[in-house]
Amino acid sequence: MLGRSIVTLDHFILDRQIEFRYASGELSRILYDISLAAKVINREVNKAGLVDIMGITNATNVHGEEVKKLDVFAHREIIKSLRLGGQCCVLGSEEEEDIIPIRAEDSGEYIVLFDPLDGSSNIDVNVSIGTIFSIYRRQTAVDSVEGLRKEALQRGVNQVAAGYVLYGSSTMLVYTTGHGVNGFTLDPGIGEFLLSHPNIQIPAKGKYYSTNQGYYHLWEEGLKNYIRYLIEDDPATGRPYSLRYIGTLVADIHRTLLYGGVFFYPGTHSAPKGKLRLMYECNPMAFIIEQAGGTATDGFQRILDIKPERLHQRAPLFIGSKVDVEQVHHFLQKGR
């Protein structure tokens, strides 16, 4: 019996290009450039223990966090790849405080925001890490720096594509252009991403929850009550839930996408907006999860409807299976 035909990422992108209403090949080229940068990053990740690329750089980023050497490498590779194509008018990286304008003569129609290496605190202990990206189409023809800053601050609902790359036991690229979610696994033998997870659908309800429970004592009472509910023994409702937390957003969301359940990174009394960045992490993940049939909110409203005010704005995140996210909201509302 013949096996399933092999579909490469490049062929898949070209075949689906017609689904995009501005189909001209530009978005396809951006996705291709990101996948190329991901291959280069993957190569360095896989040999990180063999070269002088692990560890810190003795520098801090805009968030005051220690910058890992591999963070810097990934940041530069993505910028280099996207600048060469000429499809972008501005870039934004979680490692940069401000936008990264593209030369006027090369200015294209798209904005790409990215987290070059999510979970970098896990680099030196060989735990899964990832890259997250979000793509918008420019709304005006203004090329001033201030105009480009405004272009970069669009609501998540305006995204034309979003995705992530997971560097783990295998390397996967998962993305959406608003027509479902598909996953591709890198075959290192031929150097190609191959379609491995077509039309991903998140289960309506899961049996896992994912969060940094070490902050439990800092959470609002409604969320504490929700945790108590989850760990109760009640087979009729599928409880207790199992706690699964890696500490790399890409890895935790990837597991939630495939197996269902809920991931949350809430605010605390001292940090009411939480830790995650709206533009670089919450919006792209929310777009992916919604396209797979799930839900993403900040505890009050849909993530994709939030009007951003700053490039590095933070937001609480509750994301995953519809039933589970609705259950979280129920407890949050009762506790207020």
Number of domains in the coordinates?
A: 2
Low-confidence stretches: none
Helix and strand succession?
Answer: HHEEHEEEEHEEEEEHEHEHEEH
Total helical segments:
8
CATH superfamily of the largest domain: Fructose-1,6-Bisphosphatase, subunit A, domain 1
Radius of gyration: 20 Å
N→C terminal distance: 59 Å
Overall 3D geometry? globular
The first-level CATH class name of the largest domain:
Alpha Beta
The chain-level mean pLDDT equals 90
How many E-type strands?
15
Topology summary:
Elements: H1 9-16, H2 26-46, E1 56-60, E2 66-68, H3 69-85, E3 88-93, E4 100-101, E5 110-118, E6 129-137, H4 145-152, E7 159-167, E8 171-176, E9 181-187, E10 192-197, E11 208-210, H5 221-230, E12 242-243, H6 249-259, E13 262-265, H7 278-291, E14 295-297, E15 317-320, H8 322-334
Parallel strand pairs: 3-5, 11-12, 11-13
Antiparallel strand pairs: 1-2, 3-4, 5-6, 6-7, 7-8, 8-9, 9-10, 13-15, 14-15
Can you give keywords for this protein?
D-Maltodextrin-Binding Protein, domain 2; single chain; 336 residues; alpha+beta; 15 strands; Fructose-1,6-Bisphosphatase, Chain A, domain 1; five-stranded mixed β-sheet
Structure description:
The protein is an alpha+beta fold and 336 residues long. It has two domains: 9-197, 2-Layer Sandwich (Fructose-1,6-Bisphosphatase, Chain A, domain 1), CATH 3.30.540; 208-334, D-Maltodextrin-Binding Protein, domain 2, CATH 3.40.190.80. Helix content is 30%, strand content 23%. It contains eight helices and 15 strands. Helix 2 (26-46) packs antiparallel against helix 3 (69-85) and helix 5 (221-230) crosses helix 8. The longest helix is centred in the N-terminal third of the chain and has 21 residues, at 26-46. The mean pLDDT is 90.
